[in-house]
Design a protein that fits this description.
This protein is of the alpha/beta class. It has helices at about 15-20, 40-45, 60-75, 90-95, 120-125, 160-185; strands spanning about 5-10, 30-35, 50-55, 80-85, 100-105, 130-135, 145-155. It has a 7-stranded mixed sheet, with helices on both faces.
Length: about 190
């Protein structure tokens, strides 16, 4: 693996900002997003990081979108692709284009609570602990090999928003540290 880091993001960009603010920030070569005007785009532009938007529009098939996404990412020849708040499932075409080079940050202790509603699901299940998992992306939903995890206690009276914010605090440290570790071991 000899390229930099491409980050995929769809949301506010807090994880992306944490990556940029870490010592691996200079290795970020691009932000690729499916939402052209999200907060992550603002952080990228402020940092002088190139941005490419690949929206999933109504007329585009999922396979075509995955192909377009793979093309956008491949131009950077990334050593690592980091899904940091990217709210799309990556299809087999995309995943197979970058074997063992895509990681995701998930707000739960996998294999518990996979999917888009992990924090809500942990509270609904009465979990006393949840946390953050960094894992490789495979063809399943949050089923790839686990690289790193850190626990977060669920407090009595936690709402989804309060618990998710505590998990994000952990993610903002764990994700950059894990990226650094993976790049050093490659």
């Amino acid at each position: 693996m000899n390229g930099g880091v491409v980050v995929l993001a769809s949301g506010t960009g807090s994880l992306f900002q944490a990556i940029l603010n870490s010592d691996i920030g200079p290795l970020v070569c691009s932000l690729v997003t499916d939402v052209p005007d999200c907060g992550a785009v603002d952080f990228a532009r402020s940092a002088g990081i190139p941005v490419q938007a690949v929206p999933l529009t109504g007329g585009l098939s999922r396979d075509d979108w995955n192909r377009d996404l793979a093309t956008a990412v491949a131009q950077w020849n990334p050593a690592l692709i980091v899904s940091a708040g990217f709210m799309r499932i990556l299809g087999p075409l995309f995943v197979d284009s970058f074997p063992n080079r895509i990681i995701n940050s998930h707000p739960a202790l996998l294999p518990n609570f996979p999917g888009a509603h992990a924090v809500r699901d942990a509270i609904s299940a009465g979990a006393t602990q949840t946390g953050c998992t960094i894992h490789f992306v495979d063809h399943g939903v949050d089923t790839g090999a686990i690289v790193a995890q850190e626990s977060v206690d669920v407090q009595p009276g936690d709402t989804e928003e309060i618990l998710h914010e505590r998990i994000k605090v952990v993610e903002r440290v764990l994700l950059p540290a894990t990226i650094k570790e993976l790049l050093q071991s490659s």
